[in-house]
Amino acid sequence: MLDKMGRQIEYLRVSVTDRCNLRCVYCMPEGGIEQVTHDEILSFDELYRVIKETTYLGIKKVRITGGEPLVRKGIISFIKKVKEIKGIEEVCLTTNGILLADYMDQLYEAGLDRINISLDTFNCDRYKSITRRDGLDKVLKAIELGVEKGFKRIKVNTVIIKELNYEEIEDFVNLAEEYDIDVRFIELMPIGEAKGYTPTSNDEIKGIIKMHRKLYPVYSKKGSGPAKYYKTNGSKGRIGFISAMSHEFCQECNRIRITPEGFLKLCLHSNKGIDLKELLRNNIDDYELRHIIKDAVENKPDRHHFNENSEDEDNRLMSQIGG
């Protein structure tokens, strides 16, 4: 499945819910959001059908996201079912880690390949301040259990923000040195609540790390994702940098997204796409569904426009779009 830029689209991110058990200050208002009703989100059967049809178009990797995907009932069975679809090579999960330890064994048995865990601090008080909730101990426990369990890869994603956790950069590097995991610094994107905070560029973060360590580039095969990886002397894991703002990588983008209410998003920043829910609930046949998705993907936007005003900007919060 190629778009008009010749990019091979093989990665589908599926948001199964807009609900979350945290209220991170750069993601959601303290009072939460107006949630999509149960009837308005795609059922697991509808999501399964869409995923299955996209495999005929070349989708090989599926990531389950939210909100917080583990708050949705039936998620384990859904992951197992998706894993069994012919043509799907990897099923991954992005989570805040609060419920992860409780579901670790079930996720492993369901065939989940990789887990991304979002974490922005190692300080209990700061964790409560950032997330407006308690639970840092649960997240740290989940990271250890995930490493012990033997998933293909555990990744810890962190967003460094000047007002919140700037002084903890070294602590995240230490984590990658202690465990055979990927610790990835993701630049803050100006979406929703995040617009009120000061981002830190990955070039600046690299400069801070290099004050005390050398960074050695690690080769990653083309299409494996936007992160650029490095290791330090003696580190067990890797340090990754996802620099969507300072070093745009749109020319390598291989993904599309489905929001909780069934909107096929072609670009994180753009509001362009297709309402799959309406099609599904009006009894579209599989061939036509496949054809409509393929046509939409061919017109995937060339690039995001975070650094400029755009009439195509999606003004929803990240939890509503799919993290």
TrEMBL record:
EC number: 4.1.99.22
Gene3D superfamilies reported for this sequence: Aldolase class I
Pfam families noted in UniProt: Mob_synth_C, Radical_SAM
Reactions catalysed, as given in the entry: GTP + AH2 + S-adenosyl-L-methionine = (8S)-3',8-cyclo-7,8-dihydroguanosine 5'-triphosphate + 5'-deoxyadenosine + L-methionine + A + H(+)
Binding site for [4Fe-4S] cluster 1: 20, 24, 27
Enzyme class: lyase
GTP-binding as UniProt keyword: yes
Cofactor entry: [4Fe-4S] cluster
Biological or metabolic pathway of the protein: Cofactor biosynthesis; molybdopterin biosynthesis
SMART domains (alphabetical): Elp3
Function: Catalyzes the cyclization of GTP to (8S)-3',8-cyclo-7,8-dihydroguanosine 5'-triphosphate.
Protein name: GTP 3',8-cyclase
Organism: Anaeromicrobium sediminis
Upper classification of the organism: Bacteria, Bacillati, Bacillota, Clostridia, Peptostreptococcales
Gene that encodes the chain: moaA
